[in-house]
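step 3/5: co-fold with S-adenosylmethionine
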Amino acid sequence: MVIDKKNNKISNGVKNKKTYYIITIGCQMNKSDSERVAAYLEKYGFSLARNETKADLVVLTTCGVRQAAEDRVYGLVGEIKRKNPKAKIVLTGCLSERKDVKKRLGDKVDVWLPISQILNFKFQILKKIRNPKSEIRNCDYLKIKPKYSSKFSAFLAIGNGCNNFCAYCVVPYARGREVYRPAKEILAEAKNLIKNGYREVILIAQNVNSYKDGKINFSKLLKIVNNIPGDFWIRFATSHPKDMSNELIKTMTNCGRVCKHIHLPVQAGNDKVLKAMNRNYTVAHYKNLIKNIRQAMPEASITTDVIVGFPGETKKQFSNTAKLFRKIKFDMAYIARYSPRPGTAAYKLKDDVAPEEKKRREEELMKILRKTALENNEKYLGKTIEVLISGKNKRGEWYGYTGTNKNVKIRITNYELRITNLTGKFVKVKITKVRDFGLEGTIV
Ligand code: SAM
Ligand code: SF4
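step 4/5: write tokens
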């Protein structure tokens, strides 16, 4: 393997096959990026190693959204260097362009690879897919066909980047401005997945519902994918509340293949905090959206992201978030304690909510969430619903999830079914037991 640090290039110029291993930290977009890096490396002769200690090349797809994720990267780099000193380390993802991270890790990392620049590595790929003289848009790398890690459910990245500059968030700096793939390209990838037996296509971007390709907005794109013949589900994430239109709610309602689950990050339940976060919507707007979604799709599940302890968030302001949680009755929420991120607008503000208070706020929201999620799940009891099977646990029980994104553990009494491979299959399950974050049932 040749690593040309000056030109930031990797090539497998040796006869013996070299191996790679990828460690992914963070969101669905990072997982999808890793699938493209894997495809890219395999195209150039690398094969997958069993783990990072056996690999010649270790790729770290990094996340910088919270300090804890960043610290994990520092720990991992040290660990790889200790356990596998000969391995070359490639760092991509959110931290790959951060000067302070480069300074801290120095020579421990062999190649710094901003993900959108992967096309520069091999001129041939670039030549194949677009005129090499033209400028590379930061979504062009999405043309690389991923090595999908699942055989039945695939992330389909429809765009990259973000224009919203929420005060706490590094994504616009790490991934650049929003760019979207042409609808034609997305349709071709989706059709190919369905043709190959995929049961689920997950359309992903930082703000899926800001999608635009000429006259095609996200709602129209959903309709186009929904029109592909076949037996499959469509999911999408993440939607921004400011771009959640009535047209999109109507499309979700009318398109049979689109799952009735919406992930709509609220981030805070107080208008002053939302303004300080630069979210561009109010609590009333958010509540109205939920009302419209529930009116159109009473069965829909609603999940969210929320940050506790944003700079200056008072106890009173936080109590508005708790109140909103009680009112909306979310099915699931990713509750994050605010973590200052260098380079963001909020980094200049005093991180003045004490760590213990952030923890207390997180726990308070979690308590409400457990209660409302359980209440929501009670309506499934005794019902028969469609489940997409995703695997089998160590005890030999199958598990999967519903279109509304509820995890389901399945009891099988029939021996035939117990030994049949059900992974990636749709089955009908009668729900016999409900918990806060999961359901249980038997195949009917
Ligand atoms: N684009 C999505 C949106 O509009 O909400 C979210 C993408 S962001 C990468 C994922 C989540 O990480 C956010 O919804 C937010 O709750 C959380 N997050 C981002 N920056 C954070 C920070 N500095 N501290 C704590 N949580 C953060
Ligand atoms: Fe980050 Fe806000 Fe963009 Fe989401 S919308 S990626 S939270 S800047």
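step 5/5: annotate
The two ends are 54 Å apart (CA to CA).
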